[in-house]
Amino acid sequence: MRTTHCLMSAILGLLLTGCATTYTPPTPEARQALAPTGKLRVGLTLGVPASVIRDSASGEMKGVAFDLGKELARRMGVPFEPVVYPSIGALLDGAKSGEWDVASFIVNPARAKEFDLTAPLLEIEFGYLVPSGSSISTLTDVDRPGIRVGVPEKSAADAVLSRALKNAVLVRGPGLAAGLEMLKSGRVDVFATNKANLFEMSDQLPGSRVLAGSYATNTLAMAIPKGRDLGLAYARKFVEDAKSEGLVKAAIERAGIRGAVVAPLQ
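RE: above sequence
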């Protein structure tokens, strides 16, 4: 009898949890604005935990942008279609030809002019990764004559360090995989991007270190191509709901992101 009672209590708890999270589907006009092809095409940068990563054995995909894009499609009542790119530069180029409907990436002034943005989803520090045996041990060691700093081309780190570095030289690459090769081959002395990516890269480069401290703190938000105003309010409401309901925190944890926290509610 006790076992039956416990089982019923557990079932009731699950039902109450499910009922506690309610949401309003979009109007037909908002749905058409956000998913004009009838599917929600979500732009993703492969290899970036804040966007999407793929398990090499199972092929399973996860990441903050992936998980939230999938949930947004579910709430809208449309199929979810991931549109995967090898780098943030390729993803941004894809927007010019209308290849995706929503994406989530680091915000900077140039992107704020090009896209409509929601409030931030998460906050993340930017830092540096140095290979094994490097004499660079602090942030101030980086900006010196002769130091070559690798960055993903057109990335937020590229934009920040293009203005901030006075003595070191920037070496641009097409993405994170290229950044690892640049460090391994000695083409660069240090690689710069957000710390979530740096920790992932460090796991693949024995002896490498993510330096303490940061040169910037940036935010990741959901972006929508200009001209889709009827869907923008729904996307912004979804982001706030995703934060308050714990969906963003769960996506961060599922992707194993280090160095990131859920952005405050707006």
